[in-house]
Amino acid sequence: MIGYHGEFLTDTRGTGIMNRIFDRYGPYKGPIQGRRNGVLISMETGKAVTYALWNLEERGTIMIDGGEPVYVGMIIGENSRGQDLEVNPLKAKKLTNIRAAGKDEAVVLTTPRRLSLEQALAYIDDDELVEVTPKAIRLRKRYLDPHERKREARKSETAG
């Protein structure tokens, strides 16, 4: 039942009540289908910049706030497309000495999607891990280095 609770709440718009009871064992139905979307993966280490996250919002749902520490291989959001995408959450706005005619609008981020431990466990794919610390629950790729990730993906494709 891991993973279905969130889908159930979405389907019932939070009004459903779910009760669980064991009925019986059944025949194997095959692998459980995971999520259809890819993830946004940090390609830099440092503190996330609000301006960069604001630009990344058009690519998917962001799971962190500006100023949070990130590292290479950390999952910072869900891609709106099916494949994983490496992004730079540290990219700051270019500054010039010339003043613009209109003032820069204050960057306002959409509230990040925070996952509970159960939601994080249901969310991850086979090549991802959940990091639990006293202050945070983070998602990351099993292999932090992008070249190692590609090498392992190729190995699993040829083996499977």
From TrEMBL:
<dbReference type="InterPro" id="IPR042116">
    <property type="entry name" value="TypA/BipA_C"/>
</dbReference>
<dbReference type="InterPro" id="IPR035647">
    <property type="entry name" value="EFG_III/V"/>
</dbReference>
<protein>
    <recommendedName>
        <fullName>TypA/BipA C-terminal domain-containing protein</fullName>
    </recommendedName>
</protein>
<dbReference type="InterPro" id="IPR048876">
    <property type="entry name" value="BipA_C"/>
</dbReference>
<feature type="domain" description="TypA/BipA C-terminal">
    <location>
        <begin position="37"/>
        <end position="145"/>
    </location>
</feature>
<dbReference type="GO" id="GO:0032561">
    <property type="term" value="F:guanyl ribonucleotide binding"/>
</dbReference>
<dbReference type="Pfam" id="PF21018">
    <property type="entry name" value="BipA_C"/>
</dbReference>
<dbReference type="GO" id="GO:0017111">
    <property type="term" value="F:ribonucleoside triphosphate phosphatase activity"/>
</dbReference>
